[in-house]
Design goal:
alpha/beta; two-stranded antiparallel ribbon; globular
Length: 277
């Protein structure tokens, strides 16, 4: 069913996920430039605490707030924070995100006066079309507004991604977070061969500027790799690429329980990682 129109195009009424993100580098304590950038996701478990908590650990360069979902078919977009709140504000998706979370203005912003830094495209199941239009519209709103936003894409690890491939080829995304877990064709399976093969594809793409290695912090999920093994067998080579952005750890609650990010941060890489903000 084709419905929600934007810039002459329409989104189908299917379950999708778009994530609004915020950078911890805007608040102390700042992450040092010599350490590995770590991105994570907040808002999926009530026991994660407040959004300030992960920023104050000094572990994370980026904290993604999830999730804005269930849009299309004339429905109002919904921010799902796993029991924290479910505000719903109408409008076309790009303008909704811009006015309610970014540099625009709305009468009743779901997060009050907070202005977030950008939008992450985390598409689990949806149409393969029009994500490029969404990215272009958001970028145009940013260029014409008073604040510049960051755009990121978090596709599955196989290159090119089924849903976001066309959007990524616009070159508008500041970085990509390739998910090397829960994806049998390219996740860790006792060998790093397929991971390395797909990583090489991502960093060879001239439309991709920076790439994060997406891993899960839960040993119960498919594709889990021990952090020390990840460092020794994958990251030591990955950091040598100028396109290496850091590590995306899914997600905050399991990361706290496992100490995954702490083990990554304890590593002193031979190559300095560029801060993205």
């Amino acid at each position: 069913m084709i419905t929600e129109s934007m810039a002459g195009h329409s989104f189908p009424a299917v379950a999708v996920v778009v994530v609004v993100l915020v950078s911890c580098l805007l608040a102390p304590p700042a992450v040092t430039a010599s350490s590995v950038n770590i991105s994570t996701y907040w808002g999926t478990n009530y026991d994660e605490g407040s959004i300030e908590d992960p920023c104050n650990t000094g572990l994370y360069s980026i904290v993604n707030i999830g999730f804005v979902h269930k849009f299309g078919n004339g429905r109002n977009p919904v921010l799902n924070l796993s029991g924290r709140c479910n505000p719903s504000v109408g409008g076309k998706l790009a303008n909704y995100l811009w006015n309610n979370y970014l540099g625009g203005s709305a009468v009743d912003r779901p997060l009050g006066s907070a202005i977030l830094d950008g939008v992450d495209f985390f598409i689990e199941e949806s149409t393969t079309m029009y994500w490029d239009v969404l990215a272009e519209t958001l970028r145009n709103l940013s260029n014409n507004g008073t604040s510049q936003i960051k755009l990121s894409a978090t596709p599955k690890c196989h290159h090119p991604d089924k849903y976001l491939g066309t959007a990524i080829q616009t070159g508008l995304f500041d970085y990509v977070q390739a998910r090397f877990y829960n994806e049998s064709c390219c996740q860790y399976d006792g060998s790093f061969d397929t991971m390395k093969s797909e990583w090489d594809e991502w960093i060879a793409d001239d439309k991709v500027h920076k790439v994060f290695v997406g891993v899960t912090a839960s040993a119960k999920e498919e594709g889990y790799v021990d952090p020390q093994r990840l460092i020794n067998n994958f990251l030591r080579d990955a950091v040598n690429s100028t396109k290496f952005g850091g590590v995306m750890v899914w997600y905050l609650y399991t990361d706290h329980n496992s100490g995954y990010s702490k083990k990554i941060k304890a590593w002193n890489p031979p190559v300095q990682t560029t801060i993205l903000y």
